[in-house]
């Protein structure tokens, strides 16, 4: 049974990545899927009192839980059986690779926003960084 890590960001590209994973089931005889969302830390400018910082962080955690819950429901709707979720905080590419290593996954599947070489050059690309850092295969779904 293959263990696959699928990144979750709430986009249409995430749905396409899940659909690509579903197409792997007949070829593998079964999959264990981990849905991962990595959130940034609270971003703010200037100083905030501690209760405001905590409020921002609570909202970010709730958003992350909502994204993971939606992805889990979609994975089940698509017929995936063994699915778990995980939420992390930090630099997305680094955390994706760290969690993949920690969980000993066989493959990472990511939806890519398809900005192209020029867009990736100026905007940076989480997918590009994951491909560079990962020791396991990375499937990018457009």
Report on the architecture of this protein.
There is one protein chain. 51% of the residues lie in helices and 23% in strands. It is an alpha/beta fold. It has a five-stranded parallel β-sheet, sandwiched between helices. It is globular and about 55 Å long.
- The string of secondary-structure elements, in order, is EHEHEHEHHE
Major sheet size, sense and barrel closure: 5 strands, parallel
Categorize the overall geometry.
globular
Give the distance, in angstroms, between the N- and C-terminal Cα atoms: 25 Å
Strand order of the largest sheet: 3-2-1-4-5
Mean pLDDT: 88
What is the radius of gyration computed over CA atoms, rounded to a whole number of angstroms? 16 Å
Helix content: 40-55%
Count of discrete alpha- or pi-helical segments spanning 4 or more residues: 5
**Beta-strand content:** 15-25%
Keywords:
142 residues, alpha/beta, 5 helices, 5 strands, globular
Topology readout:
Elements: E1 2-7, H1 12-28, E2 31-39, H2 50-77, E3 82-89, H3 92-103, E4 107-111, H4 116-123, H5 126-133, E5 138-141
Parallel strand pairs: 1-2, 1-4, 2-3, 4-5
Helix pairs in contact: 3-5
Task: Summarize the entry for a quick read.
The protein has 142 residues and is an alpha/beta fold.
